[in-house]
Amino acid sequence: MSPRSVFFCAFVLSSVPSLVWADESLVQWAKRRVEEGLLKPLAEQEESRFARSRPPPRERRVRVTQATAISDKAGRSFVPFAVDVRFGSEWKENDIVGCAYRGSGELFVKRGDAYRPASFLLGKNVGPVPGVCEAAPPPRS
Questions:
Q1: For residues 106 and 98, is the Cβ–Cβ distance under 8 A?
Q2: Tens of pLDDT along 7-47?
Q3: Burial class for 81, CB neighbours closer than 10 Å (0-12, 13-18, 19+)
């Protein structure tokens, strides 16, 4: 094998991880994004909480509630998700409800009737963001 061939093979193999991410489904991407951007930081924060707060769940799971992206009024695409928790033997569905934006990776969670950045659950003082996680009305024909 010539040095050029070795270099070419090394170059092709070094680009494989980016091809793998390109093949990642929307559902897989959303689950990974919520786990890394919300659930892991939330679990780390809960390890240092005082005993008077709600005990952390034994387990959390992410469910993507729609397998196709939805466009908001600004034309940005998002994927809705829900996080279920288990404290004992039974699961409580929809403990956290929100959406992940495909282009930016931003995460939003619903509190009351409004959506806030997910950092709200991590103790940041952030207000509601109007129009996020809300589907645009279908186009008129």
A1: no
A2: 334 433 443 333 334 457 999 999 999 999 999 999 988 87
A3: buried
First to last CA, the chain: 61
> What's the token pair of residue 30?
């959303």
Distance CA 58, CA 127 (A): 29
CA distance 42 to 101: 19
> Cβ distance 66 to 79 under 8 Å?
yes
Taking CA 25 as the corner, what is the angle to CA 41 and CA 77, rounded to the nearest 5 degrees?
75
Residue boundaries of the structural domains of the chain: 25-122
Smallest Cα–Cα separation from 27: which of 63, 61, 59? 63
